[in-house]
Amino acid sequence: MEQTAALKEIAQQIAVCQRCELHKSRKNPVPGAGPATAEVMCIGEGPGFYENEQGLPFVGASGKFLTHLLQQGGYQREQVFITNVVKCRPPENRDPQVDELAACAHYLDRQIELIDPRIIVTLGRFSMARFLPDVRISQVHGKAGYVDGRLIVPMYHPAAALHNPNLRSVVEADFAKLPGLIERANQRIQKIKEEAARLEADQTDQDNPAVQLKLF
Known about the structure:
216 residues, alpha/beta, Uracil-DNA Glycosylase, subunit E, five-stranded mixed beta sheet, globular, disordered C terminus
């Protein structure tokens, strides 16, 4: 498919990217993985040790928990596109820096544009800030809202629940909302399509002299 080929091209660009200092210490870039037609897109913060080793997103302990969470929400991992706001591992798993986030922003924008997911699930505060700046994740986790026409669902990072067992049930409950949120997104898209079809039909009627004569 055209989108699949375009995503591969982005991955190739990331593989040779030198836009920030992270390329100097990476072993493998981690562009992301999943189908080009995914309804759900999960965006984390950055690759960790195991991701850097394998070149794949969320393959460590957090990845196993994410797979479990997606299943809680009615999805197999293979149905979801998973990526990060930065595509190379920050040293010692430190937080991504402003220039690093800016360097990878174009790649993430293109991935979102090509996949055009029904829902974007942000995992952690750095990916959340990409869409919802100046809010606290403790206040908005699990609450969906539209940003530039896309349904964004901020979630805690799976690692947060692994480090704080008290968060586990909260994170699981948030992911369990996914089927209802997908239905909400699909209904909105259907209404938009129906409205567009109605407007097109109205315009066709206005351009048709035979229909116009019936108005008199």
